[in-house]
Amino acid sequence: MSCASVPGGGLRHPLRCRKPWDEECEEEAVCVIMCASVKYNIRGPALIPRMKTKHRIYYITLFSIVLLGLIATGMFQFWPHSIESSNDWNVEKRSVRDVPVVRLPADSPIPERGDLSCRMHTCFDVYRCGFNPKNKIKVYIYALKKYVDDFGVSVSNTISREYNELLMAISDSDYYTDDINRACLFVPSIDVLNQNTLRIKETAQALAQLSRWDRGSNHLLFNMLPGGPPDYNTALDVPRDRALLAGGGFSTWTYRQGYDVSIPVYSPLSAEVDLPEKGPGASVVVPEEKMSDVYSILQSIPQRQIEEMQRQARWFWEAYFQSIKAIALATLQIINDRIYPYAAISYEEWNDPPVVKWGSVSNPLFLPLIPPQSQGFTAIVLTYDRVESLFRVITEVSKVPSLSKLLVVWNNQNKNPPEDSLWPKIRVPLKVVRTAENKLSNRFFPYDEIETEAVLAIDDDIIMLTSDELQFGYEVWREFPDRLVGYPGRLHLWDHEMNKWKYESEWTNEVSMVLTGAAFYHKYFNYLYTYKMPGDIKNWVDAHMNCEDIAMNFLVANVTGKAVIKVTPRKKFKCPECTAIDGLSLDQTHMVERSECINKFASVFGTMPLKVVEHRADPVLYKDDFPEKLKSFPNIGSL
Amino acid sequence: MQSWRRRKSLWLALSASWLLLVLLGGFSLLRLALPPRPQPGASQGWPRWLDAELLQSFSQPRELPEDTASPPQAPHGGSCNWEACFDTSKCRGDGLKVFVYPAVGPISETHRRILASIEGSRFHTFSPAGACLLLLLSLDAQTGECSSMPLQWNRGRNHLVLRLYPAACPRTFQLGQAMVAEASPTVDSFRPGFDVALPFLPEAHPLRGGAPGQLRQHSPQPGVALLALEEERGGWRTADTGSSACPWDGRCEQDPGPGQTQHQETLPNATFCLISGHRPEAASRFLQALQVLAALQEMSPARVLALRQQTQFLWDAYFSSVEKVIHTTLEVIQDRIFGTSAHPSLLWNSPPGALLALSTFSTSPQDFPFYHLQQGSRPEGRFSALIWVAPPGQPPLKLIQAVAGSQHCAQILVLWSNERPLPSRWPETAVPLTVIDGHRKVSDRFYPYSTIRTDAILSLDARSSLSTSEVDFAFLVWQSFPERMVGFLTLSHFWDEAHGGWGYTAERTNEFSMVLTTAAFYHRYYHTLFTHSLPKALRTLADEAPTCVDVLMNFIVAAVTKLPPIKVPYGKQRQEAAPLAPGGPGPRSKPQAPAPDCINQLAAAFGHMPLLSSCLRLDPVLFKDPVSVQRKKYRSLEKP
User: Fold this and answer.
1) Residues A488, A462: contact at Cβ < 8 Å?
2) pLDDT in tens, A594-632
3) A305 and B302: CB-CB below 8 Å?
4) Does the beta-carbon distance from A561 to B46 stay under 8 Å?
5) Cβ-contact B533, B628 below 8 angstroms
6) Least confident among A139-143, A153-157, A553-557
7) In chain A, what's the furthest Cα-to-Cα distance?
């Protein structure tokens, strides 16, 4: 902000501060001080000597008076608080009692009674909510007014403490807008929480004269006490036409399913009640005619379920009902979910306390489905400059019957890929993608060219896998489409001496990872790797030029909760010019680096998602005493 | 002049320092003394009232209603809800018992088959007095026969009127308190929480089984239209991501243009499809569609993936056949009756669905084999061996020793199912051994005995022969796949062109689709499904043709999991002797080809062929690898 503003301008700033400890606020206050002092310094000493002496006193006095006045005004801005704290009501500028008065003529219109047939699609104008990139409804709150009848008698009490709190919560939330034209939900500042304090007809008239009332469409009323004792009515008696009612104490007769919102009756007392650790019992619906059986019904509930319900109830209470604020926001969230159903939070998100979620996963590929063989797979070969080896890999992979496309990711920016005429001629489309940077992550990018669900990631030096082995790997992937299905297997172990994870590539009886130098997986994991990898893992992999496969193993295991499938017996993944996989793995520093990766990733994921298994997948008749020529995949395991 | 100037500068300096002091010191003092408070008069948002502290509460404590419930109100004009109009006192005991009114006069084939299907289900009872729900089928509009008021009508209390096809009869009598399950009910007549809304079923909808969903892959194919839009006369239009979405103010200037859309008769291949519940003008529908399109483009691939799979799951679980629709309706009503012991939402909303996850078995997801991942739980690390001793009835001493040798074995149950007297002495084992005297029926083998205390069952025939390593390894594999059957010997089914039916063989092939239950691990829940969910006719079939029981168990598990079973390695020598081949005593050298008709009867009863083939076997990681046997954990599996 500019400090050259006129003193009056400077003084208005503190008024804009909204929150007590708003940083902006403090900044402005400091600026006011600076404005004053700077003006003094510049105008005072610099200007005064040039003036005539007899005018000096005059100017100085004038200036001092101005400054003093300025200070006094500044001070004055702070005084009201001390006045307020001493309960002095002299300053009424923004008191609840000093709001505009609206006179309601006795014959002003009254809304229809609540329209019981209202549903979201009939009585709510969703088009007002527009298409909103954030999928959040915009809520406007009408300014507080005082309504009086023709005789000047007020229609209702002033706003209640709870309703004030509720409107404050809405106003502070993301839903709030102060632009009435952009709003899609309107909240009157007419307090109808308790029907007993209302003059019903006049309150209805007050609602009807709201500037955007329009039969109550898109208006939200909150009511806690619909009627008084002894016969509490179950819904607010104020005629409200199409207005939505968030109410406590609905019965099934008055509740407009999918339209009104049922909220708990908030007790001003309960806010202070400290919930015992056990929680407020469980919700068990017992029909009234079964009241005599309550004891046996409750006894039949297993202990595990009871504990679960107690935890659930406590969480409900804390998340949605504990305070007026929680009730207000939960109501808006419910309406928001109805208007943007596709962005709605799920049943589980509403209902599952985070603690229950612990350790559980929701597999993105949860539908048991064996994809048809005819789809085939896309082989993605990551290469830098080993063209000769790359061409051999392409030739070998192209022999696999189910290959449907071959994608070469050319990761070398300094060298052009070989000319088209030099590439091996193969029976499936071959496409070269050039990358902008030499990054390992490029291997896992969800390229548009991938048209199959199955992806075979293969290094440009894996020439030892036979066509039978690759085809069998694809068949295994079809039976486990949500897993990483790979050839060389690896294991993570807990090093008790060092107290950390260790990477293991020896001949072990267990497997927890497969190398992505040769592995099948669903292309969705490319999307996850590229856009949803937690923390800085992706950058870490690219910076270290290592461990992209371990990262992929972590990612898939974490999201599916399932182990990898290692296929076919162990082979020596070695070729004369190879440095990757086994070649490199033997290197001691490489092993240390890989162990570091596991520890790093485990800390980023906050858990060790990898699952250890003791099995691998072989063809049904592998090594069985059975004629080789009758086996579907005879050429397995031999090098 | 000089003094004047001095006095002036002194005065200036004084006032300046005084000013500074007041400004800086005063302000900071003030701020220390008075923490900033909500500022009044904010131009935005709800104001912070100066006098908010003095606002009254909306209610006085005495005003708050007591917890005692208000007296139940009488149903408003014809309206009903569950508590008021359904008498659950008749529904004690095990689950929902349904009586179906027999048809009066001539009925259509569909009607007859639906009646038969309900009569064959676990819900059915023949006594209207013992029934908790009385079901009135009302679906024969085409024959002109409309049902009249049934005898036990009682104002419709505890009645369900099932209207599968909306072109139903005029209401010849007041439905009163009867629940109505009908296709596409109107908002006005539908009583939420009481009536049941059904999908509109085409005439040709299969009675049972039903075609599996059309979805062949999890994720949408690239390049497929984003949205298919239902048109007025049953056609379809597609709109793509290229279509510009109109702003949501409801005014759309541009014409959709023929380039982006195409008219089709059949449902096109699209990621989403928009179906309008009511029928407004096509133009406005298209605008709506474009708006939806904009929304869909916002949707993350993860959400698209989930929705896609969910549609398939819901179709398969609840809607693909008339029988499923009816059973779903009854299951919904049963859940209302059960209240606390109804299906949790997880069981309704994730595979295999509430019809296959019986709430009478448990309402705790961890007890089922399907939800361990969602629950973050693990199948327990112990199993029960259930050894069936059929005639001639030699106590399987060697087998008991081998199984009891497994560190995972919790108990051994011997199901004595032959005429010989029970042996008085059994071998000493490290784990408890219980003998159950069976009823000499094959279906005994799959009864949910309360003595089975573990989730995993190792089902064995007395003549099976297994080594401890084989048992250990197979059990570890089962823990990874608790919803599947893990077995040693396999059968495979095939379509027999010559006979125009299904056949199956025990011969060794490159694929298999069944494992023999004479040596297999599976979850104890499948015993409950076999005994309590299977139509009685199928259990009888298994008793009459014992070789059929393997096929039947595999059908059940495959129908639930939609996955093939798992095969683990089995010692070579014994395999050649084929001791586990199905069939009773007889020549062992040649695997008996079991009655081929069994599989066709089962396929007809299930309404489809649930079996799926697998081409893999799960071996130990170092199985037959060229490495020292000392390194291998399951070396005995490789012994020739």
Assistant:
1) no
2) 999 999 999 999 889 999 999 999 999 998 888 988 999
3) no
4) no
5) no
6) A153-157
7) 124
Min Cα–Cα distance to chain B from A107, Å: 28
CB contact under 8 A, B216 and A372: yes
Over 60: is that where the pLDDT of B514 sits?
yes
Whether A365 and chain B come into contact, CB under 8 Å, resolves to yes
Annotated active-site positions of B, please? 550
Contact criterion met (CB < 8 Å) for B52 and A56 = no
Among the partner-chain residues A71, A164, A371, the one whose CB lies closest to the CB of B22 is A71
Do A95 and B50 lie within an 8 Å CB cutoff?
yes
Interface test with B, best of A71, A173, A533, A615 (most B CBs within 10 A): A615
What's the pLDDT tens digit per position in A159-194?
Answer: 888 888 889 889 888 889 888 888 889 999 888 888
Cβ neighbors of B68 (< 8 A, separation 6 or more) are none
Q: How many other β-carbons are positioned within 10 Å of the β-carbon of residue B105?
A: 9
A84–B615 C-beta distance less than 8 A? no
Is this structure's pTM higher than 0.80? Answer: no
User: B298 — contact with chain A (CB < 8 Å)?
Assistant: yes
Name the token pair of A393.
């890999």
Is the ipTM reported for this complex over the cut 0.85? no
Contact of B389 with B395, CB cutoff 8 Å: yes
Contacts for A609 with CB less than 8 Å, ≥ 6 apart:
A554, A557, A558, A561
Confidence of residue B637 (pLDDT cuts 50, 70, 90): confident
B347/B355 Cα distance (integer angstroms): 9
Closest Cα partner for B81 from B197, B195, B194?
B194
Tell whether A294 lies on the interface with B, counting CB pairs under 8 A.
no
Q: Which residues of A305-316 are buried (b: 16+ CB within 10 A; e: fewer)?
A: beebbbbbbbbb
If you write DSSP's letter for every residue of B78-99 in order, what string do you get?
T---HHHH--GGGG-SSS--EE
Q: Do B88 and A290 touch (CB under 8 A)?
A: yes
Average pLDDT, chain A: 77
A498–B contact, CB cutoff 8 A: no
Which two tokens mark A463? 């020439």
Residue in chain A nearest B314 by alpha carbon: A367
Amino acid in position A80: P
Is the Cβ–Cβ distance between A226 and A249 less than 8 Å? yes
Identify which of A56-70, A103-117, A207-221, A339-353 has the greatest average pLDDT.
A207-221
In percent, the amount of chain B with pLDDT more than 90 equals 28
pLDDT at A536 over 70: yes
Which residue from A56, A265, A566 is facing B621, i.e. has the nearest CB?
A566
What dihedral angle (degrees, nearest 10) is formed by the CA atoms of A83, A86, A91, A97?
150
CA B599 to centroid of chain Cα atoms:
25
Is A375 at the interface with chain B, CB within 8 A?
yes
Reference B343, options B95, B31, B606, B618; nearest CA is B95
Residue with tokens 């010849």: B172
Nearest CA-CA distance, residue A476 and chain B, Å: 7
Q: How far is CA B248 from CA A126, B245, B288, B292, in A?
A: 9, 9, 9, 10
- Kindly state the percentage of chain A with pLDDT values over 70: 69
Instruction: Give the tokens for residue A64.
Output: 């001092």
Q: Which of B15, B47, B56 sits opposite A161 (nearest CB)?
A: B56
Q: Which residue of B has its CA nearest to A512?
A: B621
Four-CA torsion A126, A129, A135, A140, nearest 10 degrees? -130
The listed range with the strongest mean pLDDT (A154-163, A258-267, B230-239, B371-380) is: B371-380
Residue A135 C-alpha, separation from nearest chain B C-alpha, in angstroms: 9
Amino acid letter, residue B248: W
Which residues of chain A neighbour B617 with C-beta distances below 8 Å?
617-620, 622
The answer to whether A560 contacts B618, with C-beta atoms less than 8 Å apart, is no
